[in-house]
Amino acid sequence: MDHDAALPFVRALRPAASASPAIRRKPAPELDPLLRAALDCARTGLIVLDRDKRVRLLSRPAADLLGVHPEQRSAALPIMHLLAQSPWLDQASLQTLATAFNGAESHEPREVLLSVPRPDGARVVSLDLRRADNEGWVASVHDVTQSRETQDWLLEHAATDPVTGLWNRQHFMLMLRDRLEGGEAAGTAVLLLDLRRFQPVNDTLGTAAGDAVLRLVGTRLGTYLRDGDLVARFASDEFAIMVTDIADRGAVARLSDRLVALISRPFQIEGQTISIGAHVGAACAPADGELPEVLVANAGLALAAARAEARGQIRLFEPKMDARARERRAFESDLRQALARGEFELHYQPQIAVRNHCVSGFEALLRWRSPERGLVPPDTFISTAEDLGLINDIGAWVLREACCEAVNWPKDINIAVNASPLQVESGDFTEIVAQALRVSGLAGHRLEIEITENLLLRDNASVTTTLLALRALGVHLVLDDFGTGYASLSQLARFHFDRIKIDRSFISAPDAAAEHAAIVRAIAALGISLGVPTTAEGVENEAQLALVCENGCTSVQGYYFSKPVPAAAVAALLERFHPDMAEAGCV
Ligand code: C2E
Ligand code: MG
Ligand code: MG
Fold this sequence. Notes:
Layout: H1 3-6, H2 8-13, H3 33-41, E1 45-49, E2 55-58, H4 60-66, H5 79-83, H6 91-102, E3 110-118, E4 121-132, E5 136-143, H7 145-159, H8 169-181, E6 189-196, H9 199-205, H10 207-224, E7 230-235, E8 238-243, H11 249-264, E9 267-269, E10 272-274, E11 277-284, H12 292-308, E12 314-316, H13 319-338, E13 344-353, E14 359-370, E15 374-376, H14 378-387, H15 391-406, E16 414-418, H16 421-425, H17 429-440, E17 447-452, H18 454-457, H19 461-472, E18 476-482, H20 489-495, E19 499-502, H21 505-508, H22 513-530, E20 534-537, H23 542-550, E21 555-557, E22 565-566, H24 570-577
Parallel strand pairs: 11-12, 14-16, 16-17, 17-18, 18-19, 19-20, 20-21
Antiparallel strand pairs: 1-2, 1-5, 3-4, 4-5, 6-8, 6-11, 7-8, 9-10, 13-14, 13-21, 13-22, 14-15
Ligand C2E binds near residues 418, 420 and 538.
């Protein structure tokens, strides 16, 4: 706004050096000296105006705060003439004051705030103007600099992230709401940017270096964006950017690409060169959301999709992402209730001894019979159950159910149950296993617990204690999917497994068959030298059976003999593969 054009009367009022001769002066009646002294000592300044808005009294603190010369205090000038002589009040302040005094005819009190740039430091002055019946007006004048500074400080610190100094999430959401509700949704986009490879910086160089990287990322983003755009830090390594006046989705995608490139340039921290990267997910208003929460949530879905890509990628929100997120939420909600609704069931797959082709045990494999989704395989829901904290309850059910089923089988037939690492680490796993054995009456040595080798890597004292306690119950420990994880041979020796299962990828992969045969041979030989039986998983045909037999595996499991079957079909398999039940089934 052009203040000068709006204020011709103020400029006209400002006298060159002294008061205009055209101004009529009326001597003000003398005040009681005590009253004047009291007013001059008070912390609050006072201005008293008569009906013509001429100054009847202007106390010393008021004169000091507004920059009125002491000699002018009793000049009975019109208030705006007097104030126009202040060297500290600029045109904007004078206009504010003129507006307040001109509008003072009403009985409503008015408060104006003035920024007064005094030579000893800028002050914020509040002037509170009220009507004194019909006799005139009174204005109290306060120095509110300190309380304003406190408020500003509080506002700023409640709104910023202490590490980077960028806005925080709350402030970002407020500003986004202002923009979307202020009719400026079109051309507004939210970009969520998430750093790649940031955790190793914290882990290897320390959190101070990590903080320095975050600050540099904030600075880079800040210098790159235009006026009106806003950068905030949302979470540890997640930043949010509100861009305004952006042409279309193509421009949002190009900007996202440029931001990824910007963050991918190396950073120099404490003499080290650090390379990180970024993913960006973006959502554009109003198409992708008219409410700030929706727009940010959709940018989050786009970011999740970008993260799922192998390298630093950008993704713009698409409605199908929302559909997928909804489906995921429904899946999780149904899974939470599946146990209580009795929707889990166990299927059993026989393990056949190579020596005599007789069944030595069954592996219990979990299925979820979902009314909406049909029979859901465990690979689809086990990791979700782990994420949702459901795995311990589900695992306890599996153990009880499997033991109760197996107790009805011939006494030389074992039952193998898979255990998630989270179950073993939970602290009460031994008790849960003991309970399953008690409730079912199954002998401990007939139960095998299958764990994967990655559990051994966790170097957790409680895992060792649990495995030893299980062994004390007589339970057998089986190392599942061997060859796919990262366990070392020393870890294998440390735990004295009762059986090692060779992962089916080494048995069934048609390519690189020679190398895989060598691995099968090596693991079987290892088993022989450690005195531990080995089971080959995933045997589907005669050639694979011949391979594992030749190479020294002691038992096999696979579709060649049987797929996992419901409990009711176990009896038929026992008839086929158990020596006591059918002599013809054994070699
Ligand atoms: P796993 O313990 O390695 O189980 C063997 C998997 O290989 C089973 O898949 C089985 O059906 C499959 N399989 C067996 N023979 C063949 C074959 O000849 N060819 C092919 N292509 N596949 C074969 P499933 O039942 O889908 O289970 C997958 C995984 O889910 C299991 O792998 C196990 O890690 C996990 N799982 C199953 N039940 C449970 C459970 O109760 N608790 C936990 N924590 N995990 C479980
Ligand atoms: Mg298994
Ligand atoms: Mg396995």
